[in-house]
Amino acid sequence: MLSDLKIRILYIEDNPDDQLILKRSLKEKLSINYDLVIVDTATKGLAKIQKEDFDLILMDYRLPDMTGIDFVRQLKKTGNKAPIILLTGKGNENIAVEAMKLGVRDYIIKEEVKSQRLIDSITDILLESSLPETINLETAKALVTLFNKNPIVRIDSISTLTSNPKTEIPTEELVATLKTLTELDIVNAEPSRSVITCPDCESLTSTLYIECPECESTKMTKEEALEHFDCGNIDFRTKFSKGEGSLVCPKCGKKLKVIGVDYRKIENWYRCSNNHFFGQPNFSFACSKCTAKFNLETANLEMLHNYSLTKTGRQNLQLGLKTTGLTEKSQDKQSSQKM
Ligand SMILES: [Zn+2]
Ligand SMILES: [Zn+2]
Ligand SMILES: [Zn+2]
How far is ligand 2, taken at its centre, from the CA of residue 258, in Å? Predict the structure, then answer.
C-alpha cells in the first residue's frame, strides 16, 4: 500500500542544465515515489496545471515569458492551491519577501538545489499539506518520528518523552496535538491510566510532598511504633523504656506482656521535625510548571492514553512517515560523511 503512493511534482525551468541538476538531486535524495513533469515556460506550466493535479510546484523565478511572482499571481486567480517552491539564481531579499506574501511556501537559491535544504523543504511541505491546518508542523514532525519508531506511543512516563533527544517539544503540547489528531480520527487513543494534573495550569508534572497533618512540616522520620491495648497509647518503640528485660508503657507505666495479646507492633508511624506523631502524613503536590500547591482533593484527574495511528492516519501521514524516516537517514549519512 505504502509503495503505491506517488506525489506529482511540476517543475518549470527553461535552463536544461538546471533541469538536470534538480532531476538528479531528487533522484538521489527524495526516496518517496514521485512523478516529475518538466515544462520550460510559465505559460506551459499554467496550461499543465489546468489539466492535471500536482502536489507541488517547483519553479525558476526568471522564466522567458514571465517572472515567478507573475506566475504565482496568475495561478492564484485560477484558485489552484498547490504549494510552490521558488528557485532563483541569486538570493534577493525583495523577491523572497514578495513571494512569501503571495503564499509561496519556500524560496531557495539554486546553489541549494543539490543540498539537503531542498529535500527538507519538500518533505516539510508535503507533510504539512497532509495534516489538518490546526496542527503545528514541528509537533507533527516529532510525533511522526515517534510513530515511525514505535507503533504505539505511550504518554505514561513524562521523562521518556522529554528525554527523547529528537523531541524538545513539551509533553503537554504533544498530548494536546495527539488529542486533536484523535478527534480527527488520525490517531486512536486507548485509555491507559489516570494521573494527577495541576488544577491551575493542567501540567502533568508535579512533585509529591508529604506533610505533617498538624504543622505542615515536610521533614519527618518513619519509625516503628507500639500500641498498648490496656491504655490505648501509641508511641514509637524507642519511647517505651526498658525495665527488667521487658518494655514499659510511657503513658500508664505498665509492663508490656505478650505481643498480640496486650500490645501490638505498628509499622510506619511518622514523627515530624516539630515532634508531632502521626500514622499517615498528608500528601500534597507542587506543580513543576506554575509552582501551584495542591492536594489530592483539589487536583484534577486526567486519563492517559496509548496512541496508535488509525488506518486513516496511516494513509494521511504516510508521506510524513516516509519522509521523516528519510530525512533522518539522510542526515545521519551527511554527518557520518563529515567525520
Ligand atoms: Zn508537625
Ligand atoms: Zn499503657
Ligand atoms: Zn500548574
Answer: 13
The residues near 123 (Cβ < 8 Å, ≥ 6 apart) are: 30, 32, 323, 324, 326, 327
Of the listed ligands, the closest to the CA of 231 is 2
Q: Which ligand is nearest to the CA of 239?
A: 2
Ligand nearest to the CA of 254: 2
Query: Which ligand is located closest to the Cα atom of residue 240?
Result: 2
Q: What is the CATH number of the domain that holds 120?
A: 3.40.50.2300
Cell of 89: 539564481
Pairing of strands 233-236, 220-228: antiparallel
Q: Is residue 167 helix, strand or coil?
A: coil
Q: Clarify whether residues 54 and 170 are in a common domain.
A: no
* Ligand 2: centre distance to CA 235 (Å): 10
Question: Which domain, by its residues, includes 92?
Answer: 2-129
> Domain check: are 89 and 158 in the same one?
no
Q: Mean pLDDT, 10 residues at a time, over the chain (339 residues)?
A: 70 95 91 88 95 93 93 91 90 85 90 87 83 81 79 64 55 83 90 90 88 95 94 92 84 93 92 93 92 93 88 73 45 39
pTM tops 0.85, yes or no: no
